[in-house]
Structure formats: structure tokens, C-alpha cells
Protein: GDSL esterase/lipase LIP-4-like
Organism: Salvia divinorum
Amino acid sequence: MKPKNGMFIACVTLSMVVFDAASQCSSRKPVIFNFGDSNSDTGGLAAAMGYEFEYPDGRAFFRPPTGRLCDGRLVVDFLCENVKLNYLSPYLESVEPDFSNGANFAIAGSATLPKYVAFSLNIQILQFRRFHNHSLRLQSQGNKNFVGEDGFKNGLYVIDIGQNDLTAAFNNVPYDQVLQKIPSFIYEIKDAMWGIYLLGGKNLWVHNTGPLGCLPEKLGSLKPDASQVDQYGCIASMNEAAKAFNSQLQDLCQQLRDQMKNTTIVYVDVYSIKYSLIANSSTYGMKSPLMACCGHGGAPYNFDPKIKCRDAGFDVCEEGAGPYVSWDGVHYTEAANTIVASAILSTKYSTPNLPFNFFCNN
Ligand SMILES: *[C@@H]1O[C@H](CO)[C@@H](O)[C@H](O)[C@H]1NC(C)=O
Ligand SMILES: *[C@@H]1O[C@H](CO)[C@@H](O)[C@H](O)[C@H]1NC(C)=O
Ligand SMILES: *[C@@H]1O[C@H](CO)[C@@H](O)[C@H](O)[C@H]1NC(C)=O
């Protein structure tokens, strides 16, 4: 009885948070540009590579799926819903794109380094520069599918990257060498933020990286022993590296607030939100937080590097029966993203604690 009631209350409270926080832009049309990896890719990789992701992706919301590595909506989708904005079209989408509300440059697999490969953060910024240039021209010619000067100036620039850099850094390298690489990732993010600023962007919203060591993909591939995991079963060294990255990212945001005149830079502690969700998953009525819904091999992680979700022979959890936190071992489920997005929108994890719609209401 008790946990059931607790669960119910938790769900009601959270959905109320989503709706209470739903906040239109009163004075101007919201415009959002997003940069990052699969955590916020709304179909960019699918468009670039000609992939059609199929069931079970999208099964909780988008049918057919839309190129999101998820059963439904991503955090960025919930942020768009919050300001009554259409979901962002990927920059590379050539089939009926709508860029009147911004564009999404995030591509699954992206990292900050190496710098000159598709689709690093640097390439995404170069794409943005090209988009900016042509969008201004087209919009001034009356094309309503593009963004004009005001949109670029008052728009929100969201950055969510780093997970793939840390993943790559951990490839057969000892922990102290992983730590040594982190400043080079932060340097690339700094470069990207300057790139946006120099083109006139003044509202930045930066997500830090989540607890890497809690991903079923890492756990199922590395099979850590008891000495390597923390009290919730996550790989401690990976989470420590994520926290080191985040601390430098937070410092960067502070440094740039001083250097970039007239900008607002909001740093969001997504790590704490996700870690708290994993630690308290049963409070949210969620299933084993270290186990992928879509994968192979069963408990404890349901992640088999040889038969991943989308590979021939994968298994997928029953739909609607107490959601999992992890969709495919790397990406969160829509149910988890709902909770993460409400926590982001609560402003409790933001520095400074600005509401998400700040950029369109001044
Ligand atoms: C903008 O695009 C035009 C072509 O439309 C090109 O000649 C120009 O170099 C571009 N400017 C920048 C800053 O990229
Ligand atoms: C900052 O904003 C103020 C007031 O809008 C403006 O006067 C000033 O020129 C801006 N400074 C820069 C560097 O853009
Ligand atoms: C779990 O939830 C409790 C109550 O909200 C909170 O105090 C605690 O910090 C959470 N655990 C973690 C690891 O975040």
C-alpha cells in the first residue's frame, strides 16, 4: 500500500510541475538553437545517414519514430513544449523542415573532440554560422521558414555535450589520464560559446553531463566488481570523471559570464537530477534504474554489447508496465526524460535560477 501511494503522489506532483511550469513567451516568439549529441538529437543522424529508426523507438509517443534514440520525447522536446514551440527540426533535415523557431544541430554520437570530424561541436557551430548567414538573407526576402535578426539575437542557445568525449576517454586509459583530457573538451565548449556570442547570441543554456557510470551500457560492457561501484551500483570512476567535467564546465560558465557583455548563461546540473532519479527510482515508480528496457541478456543490466537494442535478436520490456529509466542502455526513456525535464524546469538545478522562458520575456 505505502509505496504505491508514495508512487502515486510522486507522479501526480511531477506532472503538476510540468503543467504549472508551462509558460508561454509573452512578448516574443521563442526561438531555440540546440547543439549536442544523441541526448538531444531530434532526427539529425537519421537525416544525415538516411536511417529510418523503427519500432520499438518512438513507441511511447512518436509513431512512426522520428530519428530520436528513445521510445518517445527527449528533454529538449519537453523544453520546447514548455514555451509552446514546435519540436526542433534538425539542421540536416531536408524533408519538410521548419526553421522558423530555430534549428537543432545535435547529432547522435557527437563529441567535442576530435574537432574536425562530422559532427563534432565545432562542425555544429560551423553549420550554425552557415545557417545564420543564409537564414538572415532568406528571412529578409520574406521566407517565413527562417529566422531573422531578432530571432538570433533573442533566441536561446542550448548546449548538451560531453558524454561521448568521456566515453571515448575511458577507452583503455587509466583514470588519471581521463582526467587530463577533460580541459581539452571544456576548451572546445568555450570555443563554441564564443562562436555563438560573436554571432550575436546572448542567451545560453548549458546542460552538464549525466552520471556516465550508471548507464547499463557501461555496466553491461565492463561488468564491474563490487569494489568498482558506488552505493547505487554505478561505476564510481566514471561518475567521478563526469563530476570533474561538470565542475570545469560550471567554472567555464562563470568565467564567460564575466567576459561576455550582456549575456545570460544558465548552467543546469542535469547530473544531480539524473543521479537522484537513479538513486530514488522506486519513489518515482520506476523499474530497476541500471537495467535497459530494450537490450538483451536480462538482469542485472539487460545490456549485451553483441546484441544491443535495434540489433537482430534484441528484447524489449513490456509497454506501460512501470517504466524503466534507461531505454536502450545509453539513452533515457521518455518517462525518465519527463522527470528530468520537470526538474530542469523547476529552476532548482540552475545557476542562476532563471525560469526556462526568461529568454523570450524581456
Ligand atoms: C554568407 O553567404 C554568402 C553567400 O550567400 C557568402 O558569400 C558569404 O561569404 C557568407 N558569409 C559568411 C560570414 O559566411
Ligand atoms: C549592453 O546592453 C546595453 C543596454 O542594452 C547597451 O547599451 C550596450 O551597448 C550593450 N553592450 C554590449 C557590449 O553589447
Ligand atoms: C533521493 O531523494 C531524497 C529526497 O528527495 C533526496 O534528499 C536525496 O538526495 C536523493 N538521493 C540522491 C542520491 O540524490
